[in-house]
Amino acid sequence: MVKSRKKFSIVIPAFNEEQGIIPCVEETKKVLENQDCDHEIIIIDDGSHDDTFSVATDFYASDDKVIISRYSPNEGKGFALRYGFGHASGDLVVFMDADLDLHPEQIMTLYQYMIDHDADVVIASKRHPQSIIDYPWQRKVLSNGYYFLVRLLFGLPVRDTQTGLKLFKYEVLKVAMPKLVIKRYAFDLELLVNIHKQGFKIAEAPVNLSFMRMSGRIRPIDVYNVWMDTMAVFYRNYILRYYD
């Protein structure tokens, strides 16, 4: 058991997750309660077209550790995470996807890495040598290609920017968030570029990833948009010196 006197704020962006949001939150609550961690879980409904918000609010109406907020229209995962951080009051902030591809028990792995490596940020990494990955080969190809692109353009001291589980000290996000521009596709990259430039220490932890959905959500237009967002970060970083 990983003991902590710190409070965890778990930010979960949700878009059309009426079927999955309750299992995700329940598994997260179970992990944190078993570890006896002070915590809050922040669900941000990112302009869903289904009943994500009503399902969550009905189920957690009497649970003061679950905060639920929404806006419309859909603004993208990056915007949802920034919005959710505005509700966070914990010493440690976790960004986590709602799909349970990454089980929330791995939050404790990231926290132990934060302690062991004296890190300010710990990110789950598919490319860590101890990671166990089970997801479609198409995604592996895209992930590997994006890694080499990011390594070439930015020289970040990490091998994976996109895995949907990250742990931050609150003060790191407080410094980094005001500089962020991207709302959607390359939000994770922009955040990590900014954090690295501010001199904070980033560590990578192994991850156990099982692809839960029957079909992926990545379309050719998404690949194009990731490319455009990445180039925008490159332009702001090296040409405008915006993050300095």
From TrEMBL:
PANTHER family from the UniProt entry: DOLICHYL-PHOSPHATE BETA-GLUCOSYLTRANSFERASE, GLYCOSYL TRANSFERASE
Entry protein name: Polyisoprenyl-phosphate glycosyltransferase
Record flagged with keyword Zinc-finger: no
Lineage, broadest ranks: Bacteria, Bacillati, Actinomycetota, Actinomycetota incertae sedis, Candidatus Hakubellales
Glycosyltransferase 2-like domain boundaries: 9-174
GO MF annotations in UniProt: transferase activity
Key words, A-Z: Transferase
GO BP of this protein: protein N-linked glycosylation
UniProt KW Transferase keyword: yes
Species of the source: Candidatus Hakubella thermalkaliphila
Highest taxon, organism lineage: Bacteria
InterPro entries (alphabetical): Glyco_trans_2-like (IPR001173), Nucleotide-diphossugar_trans (IPR029044)
